[in-house]
Each structure stands twice: as C-alpha cells, then as structure tokens.
Design a protein that fits this description.
about 30% strand
Length: about 300
C-alpha cells in the first residue's frame, strides 16, 4: 500500500447532459480543469457523464454509445490527468464484448495510468431506470486503490443503497467512497415523494460514512432529460461530500451545474475509526447468514 497523504482536495463535477456526446465530454473536461485550478487533486465525474441517461427506455440503438476500456475516453482523460497532475474517476458504458456490456467506473492516476476499474454490482430495473437491459452485473468485486496518496473506493449509483457494498469496500482500506450517480425525480411524483426520496438517498450514504469511518463523495447529474419523449427524469443534483461523522462538508444545488472542491483530512479517518471502533467490534463470527437471500 502506498504512503498516504495527510490531506487532499477532492473535486466533484455536477453537469447537465444532452444528446451530443462531444459536448458532454467537453463539459466534463472543463469541470475537471476548473476543479484542478481550485486545488483539487482527485476529481470524480457523475455516472455515465458522456451521454444522456439512456436507460429510460429499452432501445438497442443506445449500445452504440458503449466503448472499450482502455478506449477513447480513457485515452483522452488519461492525457488530461497527466497534463493537470490529478487523479480522475470516470463512469463509462463499457463494451466488453458483443452482447456483454457493463456500467463501469475507471480510476486514472495523476500520471494518466489506468489504475483499475469497478463494474457496477447492483443493477436496477425500475420505471425509467431500465439498466438490466443494458448492463451485466459486475464481476470484479469491491475494491480500493491508492490514488494521489489516498485509499479510494468506488461504487456506482444503485450500489449506494447497499450497506454491504460500502462495508466491503471499506474493508479494502478505503478512506473515501466515491459514488458516481444519476438519480432524480419522476416529475409526476416530485410533489408528493420528492422530499422523502432525496432525504433517503442522502441519509443512507451519510450512514455509510458513519458506519465505516470514511468520507463519502457523490457527484450526481442535474437537469431534465427525456431523450425518448414522455415526462423523463428531473435529476436532482445536490452532489455532496460528507466526513466520517456524516456531516456535509459541501453540497451543490438542485438545478445548476456545479464544481465542488473541498479538502479532506486523512487523520480524521484514523481518529474516527479509533474513537468509534466499529471495525474492531464487528462480530464476524456471527454474520454468516448475511449471505442468505432470506432467513426463513
């Protein structure tokens, strides 16, 4: 394991996305450059940042958006990482083979090297979130990497609701969990359920920070998208970074493109985990049934 820094500035890029892939890529690059100018050493983009959120329908045409890893995006943003001297986390639509696709996060080092990738493990199938049509569940497990002096874990969107995913990533030594995200309201439901849905989303992730004694960083997309007509989805933005106590250090708004930059202290992780020793007190001898679907 590499030597860790005492602190590091984290950047989160919250963008709108449209049908023009080139424009989305350019917007992502501008966000990364802004974060770097403001001192960020590790920058994370939102889920599937290169395109509209196409999973609102089941349509084979969208497989044309997929790319190999390594591929065009890892080359472009690897060069950008090297130029700026920053680590970058990308969320990509991976074409692994004909008929085999993943929702994949890529970790690039400040030298532009491809350090690793994480394939989204939990794949939703809900109204306007028809991801099972496109993505094979991940097969790389939960991982962590040393990037820019910090131990980094990455999961993707729907993974953020599962405490097992956060715990297993933390057990790999992750000091910060990144969750590139694409989540929002169904416009017809917002008035009744909007506040509750958003509160649940933020609360569960702040709880992961507390339970695992780590930082949690969540870049979400923003804006209304209806690529195939209908009501579409109003992505709620509100990207945030919270500390190991679950306190929000930085949060974006719900309607504007934003680049968040905030400094985190790695000593805070050490202090939190020794003062609140949940990892020490886990009864791993009693948890065997966690692998059961249901205990009847």
């Amino acid at each position: 394991m590499a030597e860790h820094a005492e602190s590091i500035s984290i950047g989160l890029v919250q963008n709108r996305c449209g049908s023009n892939v080139a424009e989305n890529l350019d917007a992502a690059e501008r966000g990364i450059r802004e974060a770097a100018v403001r001192g960020a050493k590790l920058v994370c983009l939102q889920e599937l940042f290169a395109s509209v959120y196409f999973c609102q329908s089941e349509d084979h045409k969208y497989f044309a958006l997929a790319e190999t890893i390594p591929g065009p995006s890892t080359e472009r943003f690897g060069n950008l990482a090297r130029e700026l001297g920053v680590g970058i986390i990308l969320s990509l639509f991976e074409r692994r083979a004909a008929g085999l696709y993943h929702n994949t996060a890529v970790i690039l080092g400040p030298d532009g090297a491809l350090l690793g990738k994480y394939r989204k493990m939990h794949i939703p199938d809900d109204p306007l979130f028809y991801e099972k049509f496109y993505f094979t569940p991940g097969d790389l497990g939960f991982q962590a990497w040393d990037v820019c002096g910090v131990r980094v874990g990455v999961c993707v969107c729907w993974d953020q609701w599962f405490p097992e995913a956060a715990r297993l990533t933390a057990l790999r030594g992750a000091q910060i969990l990144f969750y590139p995200t694409a989540i929002g309201w169904h416009p017809s439901e917002k008035a009744v359920y909007g506040k509750t849905h958003h509160s649940s989303w933020e609360t569960i992730q702040r709880a992961h920070a507390i339970a695992n004694g780590c930082y949690v960083a969540v870049p979400n997309r923003v804006g209304h998208e209806a690529p195939d007509g209908g009501d579409g989805i109003e992505f709620w933005g509100q990207s945030f970074l919270c500390n190991p106590s679950g306190e929000i250090l930085a949060r974006a708004g719900d309607s504007e493109e934003t680049v968040l930059v905030a400094e985190i202290s790695l000593q805070t992780v050490e202090t939190q985990r020794t003062h609140w020793p949940f990892l020490r007190d886990r009864r791993i001898d009693a948890y065997g049934d966690i692998a059961c679907r249901l205990i009847d």
